[in-house]
Design brief:
315 residues; alpha/beta; Rossmann fold; seven-stranded parallel beta sheet; 39% helix; 19% strand
């Protein structure tokens, strides 16, 4: 099999990333992850999407809660509240261990790429999980209260404030991480897969980096997106609310249009099959399939669908 590059956000993207890792040999797969959600909290560097992908591939993710580590305990959070310290962002005890290890490595002079490689390796992961950039890129949303850092909006405010605009601080100067650049320039690169992540919040941070945007525009291989919409709605997260607030119809047509000519192929859910004809008329190849991933079998099945859309056969 030739090389596959996946671009992923958090929970939804992490599911497909895990599916791809289950059906693609590790030497043939690079999973680049959004870092626009990253932030500093209690002196620690928190990378929510990198952690979601890492935990999903390691089989540590809490599938019921949808984020963090399964079988978690919360003693550190209890002590933070007792000490009247910031406790709005939940950090489970095992999750906290990863943030401590990452922050220790970064303060020791490692890049985020180096720290991520060390942490994923320590968890026994063979797959390449890499940050989109080693340079800081920070997603911010404009609300009636002004500009908010993404985690303040997403966690502290629970996505309640209407969003007027989105920006990615630092993206203009940021460069793709070394392993992402390597994957894009590999002579055996066969496909790029956009996992079913929020286009505006999880994929746009990638595209806001001029060097990466140009590389994707000039790619010689198919780019396949798996739509995050199911039945004209988002299964999780603020996608549908965000699109409505930005005046964008909540449809697969809007998803395809947002990528502005980057896509070759889109995979849409079977409940949205009526969208296929119009998408094809717009020049896209379309695959209709079940895109809801409830378990490992669903994840692997959808991974094979996405790879097949990119004309890659799996064993």
């Amino acid at each position: 099999m030739s090389h596959v590059l996946a671009l992923s956000g958090g929970v939804g993207g992490a599911k497909l990333a895990a599916g791809l890792a289950a059906v693609v040999p590790p030497e043939d797969l690079t999973i680049a992850v959004n870092t626009g959600d990253d932030f500093e909290h209690l002196g620690l560097t928190i990378c929510p999407d990198l952690d979601s992908v890492t935990y999903a591939l390691a089989g540590l993710n809490d599938t019921e809660r949808g984020w963090g580590v399964r079988d978690e305990s919360w003693q550190a959070m209890a002590m933070l509240r007792e000490l009247d310290a910031p406790s709005w962002f939940n950090l489970g005890d095992r999750d906290l261990g990863l943030h401590l290890a990452r922050s220790w490595r970064l303060r020791g002079g490692e890049t985020l790429s180096q720290a991520t490689a060390a942490l994923t390796g320590a968890l026994g992961l063979a797959a390449r999980i890499v940050p989109m950039s080693d340079d800081p890129v920070r997603t911010q949303v404009e609300t009636d209260a002004g500009w908010l850092d993404f985690q303040t909006y997403f966690v502290a405010e629970q996505c309640r404030p209407p969003v007027r605009a989105i920006r990615f601080a630092g993206a203009e100067m940021a460069r793709p991480s070394p392993m992402l650049s390597t994957a894009l320039s590999r002579p055996d690169l066969a496909a790029i897969i956009l996992c079913p992540s929020n286009p505006w919040l999880s994929v746009d941070p990638f595209l806001a980096m001029p060097e990466l945007r140009a590389a994707l525009e000039d790619r010689p291989v198919p780019l396949v997106a798996v739509s995050p919409l199911v039945g004209g709605a988002a299964l999780k997260g603020p996608l549908a609310k965000l699109m409505a607030e930005l005046g964008i119809p909540v449809t697969n047509f809007s998803i395809a249009e947002h990528y502005n000519g980057l896509l070759d192929h889109i995979v849409i859910d079977q409940t949205d099959a009526d969208d296929a004809e119009g998408l094809r008329a717009a020049g896209l190849c379309v695959t209709v399939a079940g895109t809801v991933m409830r378990d490992a079998e669903d994840r692997e099945r959808l991974a094979r669908v996405a790879l097949s859309a990119a004309r890659i056969e799996t064993g």
